[in-house]
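Narrative of activities, Objective 1.

The group set out to show that a structural description can be obtained from nothing but a protein's sequence at a throughput compatible with the screening campaign. Below is one input-output pair from the validation batch, recorded exactly as produced.
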Amino acid sequence: MSRSRWLPVGAALFLFGSLTTGSASAATLASHDEEASARGWTQFQLSAAKTGWNRDEERLTRHNVASLRQRWASPPGLSGSPVVVGERVIGELGGALVALSTRDGRMLWTRPLGGDVAIPPGALASGDGLVVVTTSTGTDAVRLRSGALVWHTGDVAGSRGPTIAGDTVYVGSYDHHVYALSLRTGRVKWSTATTDEVHSTIAVSGRTAYVGADNELLALDTATGAVRWHTAIGSVHGGGPSLRDGTVYIAADLQGEGSSGQLYAVRASSGAVVWRANLGDDVHAAPSVDGTNVYIGLIDNGVFAFDARTGQPRWNRTVDGEVWAAASIAGGVVYVTVDTSQVVGLDARTGAIRWSASADPRDFATQTAPAVTGGRLYVGFGSAGIHAYAPRH
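Output recorded for this entry:
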C-alpha cells in the first residue's frame, strides 16, 4: 500500500513526477467510454470511468449550442441525474422509477420503489437491458423495456448510486461498506468494510474500483474487494473519482482550521499524488475530465478548469448560484446545473457562457448532472421535472 504525505498547498503542486499514461488502464477506460457513448448516457457521468465526457457527440456542439430550445418537459417532480438509453429517459418521481420517451417525453412505464432515492448525485445506472437503482431500503434492478422487477436486495442500501461495469454493480452503502453485486442476480460478490458511511460515487477501470472513503482515496480489486492502495486526501461527501489516461481525479475537503477544497490528480496504478490544486471553497461535486482539462463546480466560487496534465488553472467562471453536481462535457461545451434551477453551457476552452436556461419553480433541488447524447441535452430540475433540449435545425 502507499500513502501520500501532505505538502504545503499551492495553486497546483507537482508530486512524485509528471503524469504518465498507463496503457492498460487507458485502453480499458477508452473501451468503457466508447461502449457507453454508443448506447447513450447509461449512468452518472456517462460511464463506469466517470469522466462525464461524451467524446462521440457530434450533433450538439459549441457551434450550435446557442440555438438550444426546450423540446419537452416531464411531469413536475420527476428528477434525478437522467439516464438515457435508446429511446428511453429514466428518472425518479415520488418514490417510483419512471421511463419517458426521448422523442416527446411521453410516459412509458412506472415502477414503485420500496424506499427513498438519494437524488444527489445519481442513483441510477443501466446495463445489459436493466436499470439499477439504490434506495434507503435496498437496491433494485428492473427491465429497461418494461420496468418489471428482476431482483431486489435489502442488504445493500446505497448512499450515492450504483456504478455498472461489465457484469458487476458497485455500490457505496450507508452501512460502512463498498459492495460488488452481480448485475444479473443481485448476489453480493464481495464487500469491503470502511469506518464510516460511503458518500462517494465509485469509478471503475479494468481490475480496479476507486472510491473516496475514510478521508482517503481507496483502490479496490474488482475481483475480491481487497485494497490495492490508499491515499490520504480529506473528506469526500457527494462527489467521487473520475478516471482518464491512467490518472484518478478527485476533489475533497481538508479538515480543521482554514479547511478548503482540494483537487487531486493521483496515479491510478500506485496512488501517488501527481499534483494538487487548492480550490479555496467547499466542494460537493465530482470532477469531470476530457482530453485537455479537468472541470469542477464549487459551492460559492463557480466552475473551474485545470490543465489535466499539470494542474495549472485554465479558467474560472462565476455562475448565479451553487454547483453541487458534476459537469457533463460534449462537443466542446461544459454543462453544469446550478441550485437556482438553471443549466449553463460553458465553452470548454475559455469558460465563456455559450447558453443557459432556467426552470420554475426555482428550488434547491437542482443537484443533478445533465445527460448529453444523440444531439439532445437532458436536465433534471427537481420540482420542475426533467427537461429535454435540442438545437434548431
